[in-house]
Design brief:
By secondary structure, the protein is mostly helical. 57% of the residues lie in helices and 0% in strands. The mean pLDDT is 78.
Amino acid sequence: MSHVRRSPAEVQAVKDAVLAARATVIKDYQGGESLAQLARRHQVARKWLREQLVEWEIALRDRSAACKAQGASGPRPSLSPGAGRGIGARSGHGSVSEKNRASRVGTLIASAGSVS
């Protein structure tokens, strides 16, 4: 996929269109649309759009508030099977890293007891 740079005049025209649509941009942002989504839709840089919202004195959302505005709630779903069900939930035997950790702790305890 090739990317064609826009001329300064094209960039300015897009920015002018956003400035002209200020009320709609604000309404969409306050309605829950993310800064990234708005920037993509209006074909402007996120940084520039963020600066505009700040200039327009619009309260910016942090990540948590942005997720809530998008309708997300609770922790993100995990990609690993058995995650969130306790130690070793998949096989019942614990993970390799847990076994290694237990082995190292046992070795440390044994070596500490042998030092006099």
